[in-house]
Amino acid sequence: MENAIEVQGMQKVFGQNTAINHVSFNVKKGEIFGLLGPSGSGKTTTIKILTGELGPTAGKVNVLGYNTNQLKTSAFKSKIGILSDNSSLYERLTVYDNLKLFCKLYGAPLKEIDRILRDVNLENDRKKTVSKLSKGMKQRVLLAKALIHKPDLVFLDEPTSALDPASMAQVHRGLQRLNESGTTIFVTTHDMEEATVLCDRVAFLNYGDIQEADSPAALRYKYSTHAFHVETFAGDRLVIENTPKNGEQLKELIETGQVKMMHTDNPTLGQIFLKVTGKELV
Amino acid sequence: MMNVQRINAIFEKDIKDFMKNMMLLMMPLIPIVLALIYTRISDGESLPIFLIYLVVGVTFSAVTSSSMMTMMAEENEKKTLRGLMLSPASFLDIIIGKSLVTGLITFTALIISLAIMGIDPFLNIKAIIALILLFLFFLFLGIGIGLFSKSIAATSAYLMPVMFLFGFTPMVDSFGLAEDGIAMAVFETFPIMQAIELHDGNSWLPLGVIFIWVAAAAVFMYSCFKKTRTDD
Questions:
Q1: Distance in angstroms (rounded) separating the CA atoms of residues A13 and B91
Q2: What are the ABC transporter domain coordinates in residue numbering (chain A) (predicted)?
Q3: Identity of the residue in A55, A104, A105 whose CB atom sits nearest the CB atom of B232
């Protein structure tokens, strides 16, 4: 099977509220897929359905070859890792004891604890009681908990929301290493920079609908005006359309040494999201 | 469905957590202290059976039910239960792991208390079966209440009726109820009262009545479980 996740016409209704509205998408094996959207757009509900925590109201879901009815089985759960904004740890226990519990629940060898603690840069904090850790450190322990059994597919719901930039970069490197070893990563975030750095493909989720899906580079190209933005030493700011007839104008500016700065129009994912949905990502 | 390694992992985690939880650690001391006080007061005389069962009732309500509902409610409150449920551990693995911890603590407190008060009345098969059934009854009540309790604070409110109705039932004589009234007749069917009745005759019927209470507690626990699982 080429796809790790296949979703067709997935719908989730809570009472009168439609959280997910007939969404369809695929996630290829081995890719990092980002589901982007503002708070309340249905990102967490999507993860809950894909991990078997909630059942869809309608539609078909297939994750790692398991259909909706099989997502609650131990066999499926042992192949996935989950980090969500609701994940938590046993505060009275040490970092090591927390990881030891999940190592045993997933049937992973205890030596994996040392590896994962190195990966999240907590090897010197293994004996610390969780209640004494900072928020960022706790988030890294939660990440370690989600990855300790080397899952085939990891679901990360806002994984770096509590982290400082240095820790965030470290977690990104760890996730990229994990992805290089073959693990598929499904990540939800409203951090556009994170999505650009991390994801092979992204999808914009708004009001329970997927409104755009492609690689960040392809989306930036698609929504670019393809114009050149030129700033001259004289202080002029020119926008020159990328057409053959404007070649001479550009050539002249360069040859006469007037160009101080020049770049193409590349919208950020945040700007594209705003354009597609008319909403800010909060 | 059941996995010994996962049960063992949960047992090991809960024992460590229990030992670091001062509130839970204090609970097993209550029946032991009561046993010491009653023995002191009796001045060497053997204690009446209803008084021994009062300590048994306190053990099962204040240790078994209380520990179980506190452990479950804390997992709910801190959202760690969700982490366990999302792991390959089944609900049965989680419950059995926790029940083993509760059982270990309960029977340690019970054996110490009975050793202080006199263990002789319990050295027969009927009394031992009754104690096991009583343990299951209070355990299932604790699990059920723990499942729907959203916080540890809420369990205190739920523990009171369990303690007064089912733990302190031997005290019912001091409530001044009419001997042949309906209330008294109802209280006489309660699990601890049926266990006391076992010591008054040769009938096995009281064990049957206690078993019905255990079955009812199991149904209560299952309906609480179903209610917590139908969140969509």
A1: 26
A2: 5-232
A3: A55
Helices (H), A12-134: 43-50, 74-77, 95-105, 112-119
Can you read off the two tokens belonging to residue A180? 């290089």
- Residue B38 in tokens: 């009653």
Triad A159, A165, A169: Cα angle to 5°: 65
Q: What is the strand order of the sheet A209-214 is part of?
A: A80-83, A153-157, A184-189, A32-36, A201-206, A209-214
> How much is the pLDDT for A280?
59
> How would you classify residue A235: left for phi > 0, otherwise alpha for psi between -120 and 50, otherwise beta?
left
Tokens of A192: 């556009």
User: Residue ranges of the domains in chain A?
Assistant: 225-265
Are A74 and B12 an interchain contact pair (Cβ–Cβ within 8 Å)? no
Mean pLDDT over B69-81 rounds to 92
- How many angstroms separate the CA atoms of B40 and B36, rounded? 6
Please tell me the distance from the alpha carbon of residue B170 to that of residue B53, in angstroms, as a whole number: 7
What's the distance, CA A186 to chain centroid? 6
What ipTM goes with this model? 0.86
Place of tokens 């008060």: B117
Q: B86, B94, B152, B230: which to substitute to probe chain A, counting the most A Cβ within 10 Å?
A: B86
Q: Are A97 and B16 in contact (CB under 8 A)?
A: yes
Encode B96-115: b = buried (16+ Cβ within 10 Å), e = exposed.
Answer: bbbbbbbbebbbebbebbbe
Do B36 and B112 meet the contact criterion of CB atoms below 8 Å apart? no
User: Contacts of residue A53 in chain B, CB cutoff 8 Å?
Assistant: 82, 85-86
Q: How far apart are CA A37 and CA A40, in angstroms?
A: 8
Q: What span, in angstroms and rounded, lies between the C-alpha atoms of A94 and A114? A: 14
DSSP state letters, B144-207: HHHHH-SSHHHHHHHHHHIIIIIISGGGGGGGT--TTSHHHHHHHTSHHHHHHHHTTSS-SHHH
B4 in A contact zone (CB under 8 Å) = no
Q: How far apart are CA B205 and CA A231, in angstroms?
A: 97
CA–CA distance, B99 with B139 (Å, rounded to integer): 7
- Report which of B31, B69, B206, B51 is spatially closest to residue B133, judged by C-alpha positions: B206
Predicted local confidence at residue A279, as pLDDT: 66
Q: Does residue B22 belong to the interface with chain A, where contact is any CB pair within 8 Å?
A: no
Query: What tokens does B47 get?
Result: 């204690």
* Rounded mean pLDDT, A222-229: 86
pLDDT at A169 > cutoff 90: no
Higher pLDDT: B164 or B175? It is: B164
What percentage of chain B has pLDDT greater than the value 70?
98
Q: Give the H or E element holding residue A202.
A: strand A201-206
